[in-house]
Amino acid sequence: MKVLYTIKDIKEELAKVRSENKTVGLVPTMGALHKGHISLVAKAKTQCDVVVVSVFVNPIQFNNQHDLETYPRTLDEDVEKLRNADCDIVFAPTVEEMYPTQPTEKYSFGILEAVMEGIRRPGHFSGVAVVVRRLFDIVEPNKAFFGEKDFQQLAIIKNLVQQLNYGIEIVPCPIIRADDGLALSSRNTRLSSENRAKAPKIHATLARAAEELMRTMSVADVKKWVMDVFAEDPAFEPEYFEIVEDLTLQPVADWNAANGIVGCIAVWMDDVRLIDIIRFK
Ligand code: PAF
After folding, report:
1. Is the Cβ atom of 128 under 6 angstroms away from ligand 1?
2. Measured in angstroms, how far is the CA atom of residue 98 from the centroid of ligand 1?
3. Which residue among 57, 128, 204, 253 sits deepest, i.e. has the most Cβ atoms within 10 Å of its Cβ?
4. Catalytic-residue membership of 66
5. Does any ligand 1 atom lie closer than 6 A to the CB of residue 276?
6. CA torsion sign, 94 to 96 to 99 to 103?
7. Ligand 1 pocket, 88 CB below 6 A?
8. Residue nearest to atom 7 of ligand 1 (CA)
9. What pTM was estimated for this model as a whole?
10. Element (H, E) at 90
11. How remote is the CA of residue 67 from the centroid of ligand 1, in Å?
């Protein structure tokens, strides 16, 4: 496995790979790798000859300075984990390497960003799009792999590829959960031990809504029930819970309104913001 830090080095390495007619899979990450990331790497290796994992904490997608400053940075451990996974090349650029000048480009995603994370984190998805496009331009992957936990991000990146008319296949990968149900996230390491013990309630609540309550309750009542569960527990501060069509991300009014329906939640536990999703159908 090679660990490369500059655009020049990775482009040279990938030119060799392409001259051998090998396919390239990209797994973009911000590091602090966990089993969820490793599952993306494993999936990428089943579909591509060479797997590139980028590790870059992208400052321009953070709209909260505290979140950026406290985001875990663990490159040495990440590299060790990737050595034991199916990664061929790690690309770990500095901020100066990725952004020699302050990026000025902006991306818009219409209705896809007019909901959920898009309205609560202004500029976030444009910042994601800037870095993902740069990574696509540097790595020129055949396929790129993204986790479904960031459900809105996945829809935005599919849209970005369409906007740019890039021939990159975006491969969605299922959420990996801890044994107690908590969706794996790099931010979980920032939870206090008390909050970590309570956090599985997020998935348990959503699972009950999807497995049981949707049979007898309206969409509006399920939404209210979920928000109430968290509002009544002082450990949680729910930010939103939306029940949306899976392609357009627009809220649905009833269970027959779309073929695919997903519930998306954001909850604060102290200063840690957790997101999760559940598929209703
Ligand atoms: O999902 C993430 O970790 C980031 O948003 C991504 C896609 C690596 C871009 O920085």
Report:
1. yes
2. 14
3. 128
4. no
5. no
6. positive
7. no
8. 28
9. 0.96
10. strand 89-91
11. 14
pLDDT tens for residues 151-185?
Answer: 999 999 999 999 999 999 999 999 999 999 999 99
Q: Tokens standing for 11? A: 């482009």
pLDDT classification of 198: cutoffs 50, 70, 90: very high
**Two tokens at 195?**
């909050």
DSSP state of 181: S
DSSP for residue 279: E
CB atoms inside a 10 Å sphere around CB 75: 15
How many A from CA of 281 to the centre of ligand 1? 26
Average pLDDT, the chain: 97
Pocket of ligand 1 contains residue 126 by CB under 6 Å: no
DSSP per residue over 260-273, as a string?
A: -EEEEEEEEETTEE
pLDDT in tens, 9-49: 999 999 999 999 999 999 999 999 999 999 999 999 999 99
